[in-house]
Specification:
Distance between the termini: 8 Å
Order of helices and strands: HHH
Largest sheet: none
Radius of gyration: 12 Å
Shape: flat
Number of strands: 0
Length: 78
């Protein structure tokens, strides 16, 4: 069964991080570190802070991914 959420297509670009606040980048890195430790709630909070920057689309995508994983899904939509 397909999940109900719908992530935007990835459009990662080297130029995408231009204009992103340094604190948002630090929060994003904290989210990645928490995800590596399977600390979904810590990852969610860090990604939410990073996604507060409207120029940082990757943070919103990571937030959606973390929500899926936290609910028992996988990166490949199971």
């Amino acid at each position: 069964r397909k999940p109900t959420w719908n992530d935007r297509p990835s459009s990662v670009n080297v130029d995408a991080a231009r204009g992103v606040e340094p604190e948002s980048l630090r929060d994003f890195a904290r989210g990645l570190a928490a995800e590596e430790l399977w600390r979904w709630e810590d990852a969610r909070r860090a990604y939410e802070r990073a996604a507060g920057d409207p120029d940082f689309a990757e943070a919103a995508e990571a937030l959606a991914r973390t929500a899926r994983l936290r609910l028992g899904g996988t990166i490949a939509e199971s």
